[in-house]
């Protein structure tokens, strides 16, 4: 593919901004390309189906919501994160599309093999750093002069933020995201071979008047073991498994063998502290129930039945006479 056909990250951001503000419409773009013939590049293999891309988009829409909540609380200001695009392309093309000097974090996703790359636009990165240091969120791009303290502060912020990956992916697989390294020049990070297909999910991040992109790059080789789980048929099979009557029967069997404390209450009474202090052996306490009235049977301190005392094979026993209706039970029936 000719290099002039590849947009830089700044051009992509400008295009997305024009679409969101209405300065440029999708119909205008379609009209411009209507008469153009698109050449198929066999080097740019499409290894993910549209269905799998949609599944990855839904996962990262959930991640965007989690990041919005986390970063808003961490930075003590309103942060808006949203998914703008999800596309598959060669790794080499992704590297050429981002800035030469940017914030790059390499993540390990145990138990998946390989690494994921997160690129954070310097404008939004410095706006976050300014908020961490007590500022208003002003962005000053000085990535070539990044100090060790600033680097550590940013690493700690993103380390806690991208722990949200675990919750976002939990419906597919349990992962343990772990930050491996930091780099500012994408040329020094050879995550996979240049022609390896990667999925790039772009998250538009807004903090006050500052906006920028967070790009999540996941190689195909990392997702390969779980690709079958990114299909609708997998979700349908999972739902059927959860509704399996055998599972319900096993749960019911376990519940039937659970033990509950049963109390047969003869009655109760109230006395003063003075009367209590004067009690002695042989004294009688009058209960609030007549000898002919049924006893209250409680299950874990909740009244459930009426009963009467007796004996079964020389053992004390209680015979259930009736149910105690709870409030609202008759209405429900």
UniProtKB/TrEMBL annotation:
Residues 254-324 form the Flagellar motor switch protein FliN-like C-terminal domain. It is a peripheral membrane protein. Transmembrane segments: none annotated. It holds the Pfam family FliMN_C. PANTHER family: FLAGELLAR MOTOR SWITCH PROTEIN FLIM, YOP PROTEINS TRANSLOCATION PROTEIN Q. InterPro entries: CheC-like_sf, Flag_FliM, FliN-like_C, SpoA-like_sf. SUPFAM superfamilies: CheC-like (SSF103039), Surface presentation of antigens (SPOA) (SSF101801). Its main location: other. It is found in: Bacterial flagellum basal body; Cell membrane. This is Flagellar motor switch protein FliM. Keywords: Bacterial flagellum, Cell membrane, Cell projection, Chemotaxis, Cilium, Flagellar rotation, Flagellum, Membrane. Signal peptide: none annotated. Belongs to the FliM family.
């Amino acid at each position: 593919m000719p290099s002039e056909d590849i947009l830089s990250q700044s051009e992509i951001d400008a295009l997305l901004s024009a679409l969101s503000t209405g300065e440029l419409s999708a119909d205008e773009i379609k009209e411009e390309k209507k008469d153009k013939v698109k050449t198929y590049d066999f080097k740019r293999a499409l290894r993910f189906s549209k269905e799998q891309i949609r599944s990855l988009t839904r996962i990262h829409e959930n991640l965007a919501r989690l990041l919005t909540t986390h970063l808003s609380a961490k930075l003590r200001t309103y942060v808006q994160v949203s998914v703008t695009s999800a596309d598959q392309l060669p790794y080499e093309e992704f590297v050429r599309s981002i800035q030469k000097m940017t914030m790059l974090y390499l993540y390990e996703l145990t138990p998946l093999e390989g690494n994921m790359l997160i690129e954070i636009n310097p404008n939004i990165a410095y706006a976050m750093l300014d908020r961490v240091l007590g500022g208003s969120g002003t962005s000053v791009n000085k990535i070539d002069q990044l100090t060790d303290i600033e680097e550590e502060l940013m690493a700690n912020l993103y380390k806690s933020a991208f722990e949200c990956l675990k919750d976002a992916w939990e419906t597919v697989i349990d992962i343990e995201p772990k930050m491996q390294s930091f780099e500012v020049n994408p040329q020094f990070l050879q995550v996979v071979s240049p022609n390896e297909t990667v999925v790039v999910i772009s998250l538009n991040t807004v903090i006050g008047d500052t906006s920028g992109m967070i790009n999540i790059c996941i190689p195909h080789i990392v997702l390969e073991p779980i690709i079958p789980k990114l299909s609708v048929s997998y979700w349908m099979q999972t739902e059927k498994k959860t509704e399996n009557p055998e599972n319900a029967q096993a749960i019911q069997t376990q519940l039937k063998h659970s033990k509950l404390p049963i109390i047969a209450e003869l009655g109760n009474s109230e006395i003063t502290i003075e009367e209590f202090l004067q009690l002695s052996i042989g004294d009688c306490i009058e209960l609030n129930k007549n000898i002919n009235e049924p006893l209250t049977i409680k299950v874990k301190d909740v009244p459930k039945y009426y009963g009467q005392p007796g004996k079964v094979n020389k053992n004390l026993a209680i015979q259930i006479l009736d149910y105690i209706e709870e409030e609202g039970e008759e209405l429900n029936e």
